[in-house]
Amino acid sequence: MLQRRHLLAALTSVAGSAAAGFSSASAEDYAAFLASIRSQALAQGLSPSIVSQALSLTKQPNASVLKLDRHQPEFTLTWVQYRDRVLPESRFAKGRSVYAAQQAVMSPISARFGCDDRAVMGIWGLESGFGAHDGTYSVIDALATLAFDGRRSAFFRNELMKALQILNDGDIAPAAMIGSYAGAMGQAQFMPSAYLRYAADGDGDGKRNIWTSEPDVFASIANYLGKCGWQRNEPWGQEITLTKVLDKAEIGRTRQRTLAEWMALGVRRVDGTAFSQSNVKGAVVQPDGPGTQAFMVYHNFNVIRRYNPSDYYALGVGLLGTGIVSA
Predict the structure, then answer these.
(1) What is the pLDDT of residue 281?
(2) What local confidence, expressed as pLDDT, does residue 24 receive?
(3) CA distance linking residue 76 with residue 298, whole number of Å
(4) Which residues, including other chains, have CB under 8 Å from residue 293's CB and lie 6 or more apart?
(5) Could you give the CA distance from residue 188 to residue 130 in angstroms, rounded to a whole number?
(6) pLDDT value at position 27?
(7) Which pLDDT tens digit goes with each residue over 217-240?
(8) What value, to the nearest 5°, has the Cα angle with vertex 310 and ends 147 and 95?
C-alpha cells in the first residue's frame, strides 16, 4: 500500500543536518526522555501500569522509522501518475467483492453517523487496502522515536501523550496498537488526536477498535466525515468535458459557480450532455492543467479533504468509492 504520507509528503522532508541520526544521542538520553514522558502521563492521571506497559515497547529510537521519515519522496506526482498508482482495476475489483460482503453491516452504520458508503469505502480502500495493510509499527515506538527527534518533537510528543490516553481508556492493548511509521493507526489510519475526536463504536461492545473491528472502522470513518459536514446522498463530484479551455483563474475548488454558469462557459458532463440541475454550485478541478482530465467538485469533495488535504486524495477517494458502490 502506498501510504498517503509517502505520496503526498504530508510530513515535510527533513533538513539535511538531521540525517545523521541519533549516533550522538546516548541510551541515557532516550531513557531520560521516556522518564519525562512517564512523569507527564502520570501527572495527567494515567494508569502507571498501562504507561509502563506502553513505554516498555520502545527501548531506543527506531532506525526504520527515522529512515522513512527522513527520506520521503521529493518528486511530485502528476494526477495521472497518482491515479494509476492508487486506483488500479484490481483495487476496484477487490472493493466490490469486499463491499458485497460488508454492505449489510456498513450501510446502517454509515447512515447512523451521517455519511455514505461511497466515502467510507473510498477512504477505507486508500488508507489500508480495505483493512489488508494497516501498518506494522508499534505506534508507541514510532511516536516516541519521532517525539525524541528534534524535527517535530512537540507535535509527536503531543500525539504520543494522546496515544497513552487511548491505551488508558482500554480500547486496545499496548502491544496491539499498531500503525504506520508516523503513528497513523489501524485500518482508518487515524493519528491519536483524530482518534480521540472521531473514533466511534460500531459494533456496540463499548470499545473503539479501528484495528480489528470492521464495524468500528466504518463508524469511525463515517463519524469523521459526518462531523466534518458530509451531506448524505449528495455527490462528491463527477468527471466533466470542457468544450473550450477555461482561463486558469476559473480553475480550482474554491472558485464556485452554478452549473448554469459553468454550462455557459462550455462545461458539460463527461458524455457531452448538459447537467440535469442548473442551480447547484460546483467548482472545476483540472489537476494536470489544460487539455487533461477535469472534474466538477461539490461540497462533499471539500469534506473528504478534511481527512487529507489533497485534491489528488479527495479525487481518489471519490472515484474509488463511486466505482465500487455504484457499479
Answers:
(1) 97
(2) 47
(3) 26
(4) 79, 80, 239, 286, 287
(5) 9
(6) 81
(7) 999 999 999 999 999 999 999 999
(8) 100
Per-residue pLDDT, 76: 84
* Cell numbers at 280, concatenated: 447547484
* The predicted structure's pLDDT at residue 102: 98
Grid coordinates representing 126 are 486508500
Cβ distance 298 to 235 under 8 Å?
A: yes
Alpha carbons 2 and 312: distance in angstroms, whole number: 13
Residue reference for cell 467548482:
283
**Which residue, among 259, 264, 244, has the nearest Cα to 296 in the 3D structure?**
259
291 backbone dihedrals φ, ψ, rounded to 5°: 85, 5
Place of cell 494515567: 46
Pick from 23, 40, 19: nearest CA to 144: 40
State the amino acid at position 70 in one-letter form.
R
Q: Alpha-carbon distance 275 to 264, whole Å?
A: 11
Query: What is residue 25's predicted lDDT score, i.e. its pLDDT?
Result: 55
Helical packing angle, 299-307 and 117-128, nearest 10°: 30
Q: Which amino acid would we find at residue 253?
A: R
DSSP 176: G
What pLDDT, on a 0 to 100 scale, did the predictor assign at position 5?
Answer: 39
The identity of residue 83, as a single letter, is R
CA distance 13 to 300: 30
Rounded Cα distance between 322 and 127, Å, is 16
The ranges of the chain with pLDDT < 50 are 1-24
End-to-end CA distance of the chain: 23
Q: Are 111 and 232 in contact (CB under 8 A)?
A: yes
CA 170 distance to own-chain centroid? 24
Distance CA 23, CA 161 (A): 26
Q: State the Cα–Cα distance between residues 137 and 22, nearest whole angstrom.
A: 19
d(CA 16, CA 105): 48
